[in-house]
């Protein structure tokens, strides 16, 4: 087992615990302890940085920005902020589960999440996110793949 995979495995355990703790804080009816939100989001960001997941860390930093805004009374813990936080946690929970097989798609999801959360932290409304487009293999792409496959197969013989 490589060092990177051990770090990812440890991250999954650690981050899942942080996400669950943060979820419990915001699932109560009364406003959560903003200082605990800041600490939890910061711990989640630190775990992501240690695991080498920069885009996950950026999304966690965006959660931390919302929590800091609430703590410093620069942002109200209104339904918009609460919903953004909860949706962010749900997305991060899904990304935690895929940390051991992290790829470009997870980077895109984490970056999109961080942009949405940064808008909330800045007090801006978040636009509806269009569903991702499915990749389509055009005839040109198929021809390229066929040519490259023939070259690779020829070099293996």
User: What is the CA-based Rg, rounded?
Assistant: 19 Å
| Number of domains as seen in the coordinates | 1
CATH level-four homologous superfamily name: HPT domain
How is the main sheet built? none
CATH first level: Mainly Alpha
What overall form do the CA principal axes indicate? elongated
| Helical run tally | 6
Residue-averaged pLDDT: 87
How would you sum up this structure, described in words?
With 157 residues, the protein is mainly alpha-helical. It has a single domain (3-126), classed as HPT domain (Four Helix Bundle (Hemerythrin (Met), subunit A)). Helix content is 73%, strand content 0%. It is built from six helices and no strands. Helix 2 (34-51) packs antiparallel against helix 3 (54-71). The longest helix has 24 residues, at 3-26. The radius of gyration is 19 Å and the shape is elongated. The two termini are 31 Å apart. The mean pLDDT is 87.
């Amino acid at each position: 087992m490589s060092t990177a995979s051990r770090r990812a495995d440890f991250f999954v355990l650690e981050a899942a615990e942080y996400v669950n703790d943060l979820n419990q804080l915001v699932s109560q009816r009364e406003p959560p302890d903003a200082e605990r939100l800041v600490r939890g989001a910061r711990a989640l960001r630190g775990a992501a940085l240690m695991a080498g997941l920069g885009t996950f860390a950026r999304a966690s930093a965006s959660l931390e920005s919302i929590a800091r805004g609430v703590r410093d009374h620069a942002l109200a813990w209104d339904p918009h902020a609460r919903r953004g936080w909860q949706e962010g946690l749900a997305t991060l929970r899904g990304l935690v589960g895929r940390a051991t097989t992290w790829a470009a798609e997870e980077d895109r999801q984490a970056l999109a999440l961080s942009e949405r959360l940064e808008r909330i932290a800045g007090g801006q409304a978040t636009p509806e996110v269009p569903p991702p487009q499915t990749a389509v293999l055009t005839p040109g792409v198929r021809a390229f793949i066929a040519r490259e496959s023939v070259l690779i197969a020829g070099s293996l013989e």
